[in-house]
Amino acid sequence: MTRADNLIKAAIAENTRSTLREDVDDLFSISTGDEGHFHIHSIGDKAGKPADGPSATTYSVRANTDAFDPKFLRYVFQHAHSSGRFKKFLKGTTIQRVTVSDMKRAMGEHLTDLYGKK
């Protein structure tokens, strides 16, 4: 079992609602800056999908390297995107966007589904 597995399972066990929600801060951080291990789209159907580089419509993701290999975390985001995890968090009418806090919530739910079920 990896350190990431242990951190995720511990966070799930400590949370009374059985989901990580926004308790993902010890696993990774998401910001609007350019500094990060990789970038993810924040708008439309591409929300949550890893991007090739920074742009005005991407967030930066910095992995806690004690918990995750950044390449592995990028694949976790790709899996969450391909399974439609971010669609319910889209806000707006003309240009739909996912906020940083909703992105964390979506990833918390995704990680809970991956690691929290027996």
Describe the protein's architecture and organization.
It is a single chain. The chain is α+β, with helices and mostly antiparallel strands and 118 residues long. The chain has a single domain (3-115), classed as Adenine-n6-DNA-methyltransferase TaqI, Chain A, domain 2 (Alpha-Beta Complex), CATH 3.90.220. 35% of the residues lie in helices and 14% in strands. It contains three helices and four strands, in the order αββββαα. It has a four-stranded antiparallel β-sheet. The longest helix is centred in the last third of the chain and has 16 residues, at 100-115. The two termini are 15 Å apart.
Write the layout of secondary structure elements.
Layout: H1 3-14, E1 28-31, E2 38-41, E3 50-51, E4 58-63, H2 70-82, H3 100-115
Q: Label the overall shape.
A: globular
List the uncertain runs.
none
Terminus-to-terminus distance: 15 Å
In total, the number of strands is 4
Major β-sheet, in short? Answer: 4 strands, antiparallel
Radius of gyration: 14 Å
- In the CATH hierarchy, the third-tier topology is known as Adenine-n6-DNA-methyltransferase TaqI, Chain A, domain 2
Q: How does the helix and strand content classify structurally?
A: alpha+beta
Total number of helices: 3
List the helices and strands in order.
Answer: HEEEEHH
> Residue share in helices?
25-40%
Determine and state the CATH class.
Alpha Beta
CATH-scheme architecture = Alpha-Beta Complex
Q: Strand order within the widest sheet?
A: 1-4-2-3
User: Can you tell me the number of structural domains?
Assistant: 1
Average pLDDT score: 83
Strand content: 5-15%
